[in-house]
Specification:
- This protein folds into two domains: 80 residues, 434 Repressor (Amino-terminal Domain) (Orthogonal Bundle), CATH 1.10.260.40; 134 residues, Umud Fragment, subunit A, CATH 2.10.109.10.
- An eight-stranded mixed β-sheet has the order 1-2-3-8-4-5-6-7.
- 33% of the residues are buried.
- The chain has six helices and eight strands; from the N terminus they run αααααββββββββα.
- The protein has 269 residues and is an alpha+beta fold.
- The N and C termini lie far apart (50 Å).
- It comes from Allorhizobium borbori.
Amino acid sequence: MSENDFYDAAAKTYVRYVLDELKLSPSALARGAGLSSTTLTRALNDPGHKFTLSTSTLGKIMKFSGINFNPFFEAKDFAEMSMAPFERDDITDESWGPAKPFDPARSEGHVTIVIGHAAAGVWKVPELLKLEKHPPLWVTLPKVNATDAFGLLIDDDSSSPSVERGEYALCLRTKAARTPPAHSDLLVVERWRDGGGLMEITLRRLIEPEGASPYLRFDNMEKYPEVIPYEPDAKDTKVIGVVEWTLRNPTDFKLRAQLLDRRRWSGRI
């Protein structure tokens, strides 16, 4: 059974569980979650149905039902889906339209899959976060397809002060960006060594000096002085995303007080 088959089976098991718990028909669940009625009926009832259920679809069902989908999946399942439809042309559903040509319909999903850690000098066998430890973030980039956004948990201070240790970088895939990376962009850089056996993921700033070759550096240059050339076609180095936002946890009392003041002012509390 392929990885896509494992994902598809888990997705359908989750949906059927929700249907049983809520005592709803597929059409009723689809309406409640803001989906097309055929999104669920075709996937559940037609064995020859070539589309699977996207993470965006599952996120809407989870938001509507309040039933978490994490226990039904392994992290690797979501890694495969988070790359669709750019890395694979066989994963899509009615909310996306046909994979070729890709229909850039906007998603109303409000979750972002956390696909891994980022840290300078940490080379390891490629792996992904366990979803039970790092569930999807309940925010995403506005007016962006759900598969175009991803999150990274930062494990060091190489990108300080832009993104501190323990914070999340909310990123947009470079393949989804309207323009190529430009000077001063904070990029997600994936490097490989040992014949592809080990991978490093870091956040590095793109610098394009006038009259000189562009390069990638860390924001915390005092502690992390390494500089590497920016070569979009390099074999072992690849820019996979642009950091759009930093998700911070305001544990500082002053920051927390400011947050509470904003919420009181807005009438939320």
